[in-house]
Protein: Alternative ribosome rescue aminoacyl-tRNA hydrolase ArfB
Amino acid sequence: MLPAATDFLPELQFQTSRSSGPGGQNVNKVESRVELRFRLLDSQLLTDEQKQTLLQKLASKLTTEGELLVVAQEDRSQLRNKETALRKFHELLSKALYKPKARRATKPSKGAVRQRLESKKKHGDKKANRGRVDF
Structure:
């Protein structure tokens, strides 16, 4: 079970910088871009098994120091970008740690098999009756 995003707050580092893109003069003076850093191996909330799973599945998103880096700069508000980064972070972890349910093999019931074979027989008879009619 994955802890809530707010449980990770003591282990997260936030860094702000000036965002790129549209925003007019606001872009030149406000640091609205938020960078979230999470040291995966130092986490107290994750088990060793979860850490290994995350290291494998998120390898392309980790820095060389083993930090998970999430960036948000979609909004003009630093607070909303921080919330977005937290949401992205939690989604990343939950997707990476999701274990699909194991499929159990099942057999069709005898009634379903009988019904399927009757349907096939009926369809075959219909096709067999087609053809040229002799007078």
User: Anything to note?
Assistant: The longest helix spans residues 78-97.
